[in-house]
Amino acid sequence: MHCEKKRREQMIEIEDVSKQFDRIVALDRVSAQIEENCIFGLVGTNGAGKSTLLRIISGVLHPDHGQVADRWISGMGES
Q1: Please, which residues bridge with residue 69 across strands?
Q2: 22: which DSSP letter?
Q3: pLDDT digit string, tens, across residues 48-68
Q4: What is the distance between the alpha carbons of residues 66 and 74, in angstroms, rounded to a whole number?
Q5: In angstroms, rounded to a whole number, what is the distance separating the alpha carbons of residues 51 and 58?
Q6: For the chain, how are helix, strand and coil distributed in percent, rounded to 5?
Q7: Dihedral (C-alpha) 66, 15, 12, 60: value to the nearest 10 degrees?
Q8: Comparing C-alpha atoms, which of 57, 68, 60, 52 is closest to residue 19?
Protein backbone atom coordinates (compact mmCIF):
# COMPACT_ATOMS: atom_id res chain seq x y z
CA MET A 1 0.00 0.00 0.00
CA HIS A 2 1.30 3.45 -0.90
CA CYS A 3 -0.02 6.44 1.06
CA GLU A 4 0.61 10.15 1.18
CA LYS A 5 2.00 10.99 4.62
CA LYS A 6 -0.10 14.10 5.30
CA ARG A 7 -3.52 12.44 5.84
CA ARG A 8 -4.21 9.08 7.44
CA GLU A 9 -7.99 8.97 7.91
CA GLN A 10 -9.77 5.66 7.33
CA MET A 11 -11.70 5.70 4.05
CA ILE A 12 -12.92 2.08 4.16
CA GLU A 13 -12.82 -0.25 7.14
CA ILE A 14 -13.54 -3.94 6.64
CA GLU A 15 -14.13 -5.75 9.90
CA ASP A 16 -14.39 -9.53 10.30
CA VAL A 17 -16.26 -10.03 7.00
CA SER A 18 -17.36 -13.54 6.01
CA LYS A 19 -19.38 -14.74 3.02
CA GLN A 20 -20.44 -18.24 2.07
CA PHE A 21 -22.24 -19.56 -1.02
CA ASP A 22 -23.85 -22.90 -0.19
CA ARG A 23 -20.88 -24.92 1.16
CA ILE A 24 -18.21 -22.72 -0.45
CA VAL A 25 -16.55 -20.22 1.90
CA ALA A 26 -15.64 -17.22 -0.26
CA LEU A 27 -14.45 -14.96 2.59
CA ASP A 28 -13.50 -16.04 6.09
CA ARG A 29 -13.20 -13.24 8.67
CA VAL A 30 -11.46 -10.68 6.44
CA SER A 31 -10.37 -7.40 8.06
CA ALA A 32 -8.57 -4.42 6.48
CA GLN A 33 -8.31 -0.66 6.75
CA ILE A 34 -7.91 1.40 3.60
CA GLU A 35 -6.73 4.91 4.30
CA GLU A 36 -7.64 8.05 2.39
CA ASN A 37 -5.13 9.11 -0.32
CA CYS A 38 -3.75 5.56 -0.61
CA ILE A 39 -3.18 3.25 -3.53
CA PHE A 40 -4.41 -0.16 -2.43
CA GLY A 41 -3.93 -3.43 -4.31
CA LEU A 42 -6.01 -6.57 -3.90
CA VAL A 43 -4.26 -9.64 -5.30
CA GLY A 44 -4.84 -13.37 -5.09
CA THR A 45 -5.39 -16.52 -7.08
CA ASN A 46 -8.61 -17.35 -8.92
CA GLY A 47 -11.31 -18.13 -6.38
CA ALA A 48 -9.56 -16.30 -3.53
CA GLY A 49 -12.55 -13.99 -2.90
CA LYS A 50 -11.34 -10.72 -4.47
CA SER A 51 -14.49 -10.10 -6.51
CA THR A 52 -16.70 -11.13 -3.60
CA LEU A 53 -14.95 -8.64 -1.31
CA LEU A 54 -15.29 -5.84 -3.89
CA ARG A 55 -19.00 -6.65 -4.33
CA ILE A 56 -19.48 -6.45 -0.56
CA ILE A 57 -17.58 -3.15 -0.33
CA SER A 58 -19.71 -1.69 -3.14
CA GLY A 59 -22.96 -2.91 -1.57
CA VAL A 60 -23.90 -5.38 -4.31
CA LEU A 61 -23.64 -8.28 -1.82
CA HIS A 62 -24.19 -8.32 1.92
CA PRO A 63 -21.76 -10.15 4.19
CA ASP A 64 -22.97 -13.12 6.22
CA HIS A 65 -20.90 -11.80 9.12
CA GLY A 66 -18.97 -8.61 9.83
CA GLN A 67 -19.30 -5.14 8.41
CA VAL A 68 -17.85 -2.61 5.98
CA ALA A 69 -17.75 1.05 6.96
CA ASP A 70 -17.25 3.49 4.08
CA ARG A 71 -16.99 7.08 5.29
CA TRP A 72 -17.65 8.59 1.84
CA ILE A 73 -20.80 6.67 0.97
CA SER A 74 -22.20 7.06 4.49
CA GLY A 75 -21.61 10.83 4.38
CA MET A 76 -18.88 10.90 7.00
CA GLY A 77 -16.45 12.38 4.47
CA GLU A 78 -18.44 15.53 3.80
CA SER A 79 -16.44 18.72 4.16
Answers
A1: 13
A2: T
A3: 999 999 999 999 999 999 999
A4: 17
A5: 10
A6: 10, 45, 45
A7: -30
A8: 52
